[in-house]
Amino acid sequence: VDCSFSRGVCVWKQDADDDFDWNPADRDRGDGYYMAVPAFVGHKKDMGRLKLLLTDLKPKSSYCLIFSYRLAGERVGKLRVFLANKKNTPVWEQNKGRDERWRTGKIDIFQGAETTNSVTFESERGKGKTGETGVDNVILISGLCPED
């Protein structure tokens, strides 16, 4: 399932209880957009959450969430991913980029007795004043994540 922002078929929601929103940003190549949080938004430790609603996942099966992400800029903050059934513990976290390149994140989602009905991308504001946190090309496939 393609959940990308420019042409995806998925439902995305901004969290109403966080400190700031994610916003669309134009891609360098001009083909659509990605979702981003500029480094200067909010105060240190503030959070912005973007939630992907998953309505049609079958119980007792596994899925792989694959996405592109970028943490550009010095002390830009953290990017975390949470699954709805594990609200308090991130299943994935990055806190700095080695450079400004886009990287790929992969997360296995195991559907047990309770079904995961959402995935939340959370950006935490760092000390930096330049750069951004970005997410794009979100795809959900059946089965476990492939090895690199």
Task: Write a structural description.
With 148 residues, the protein is mainly β. The chain has one domain: Jelly Rolls, CATH 2.60.120.200. The protein is built from no helices and 10 strands. The strands form 2 sheets. Strands 1-4-9-6-7 form a 5-stranded antiparallel sheet, with no helix packed on it. A 5-stranded antiparallel sheet has the order 2-3-10-5-8, with no helix packed on it. β2 and β3 form a beta hairpin.
Which CATH architecture is right? Sandwich
Domain tally: 1
CATH topology value: Jelly Rolls
Question: Helix share of residues?
Answer: under 10%
| Strand-pairing-aware structural class | mainly beta
Q: What is the CATH class name?
A: Mainly Beta
Strand order of the largest sheet: 1-4-9-6-7
Based on CA atoms alone, the radius of gyration comes out at: 15 Å
Shape: globular
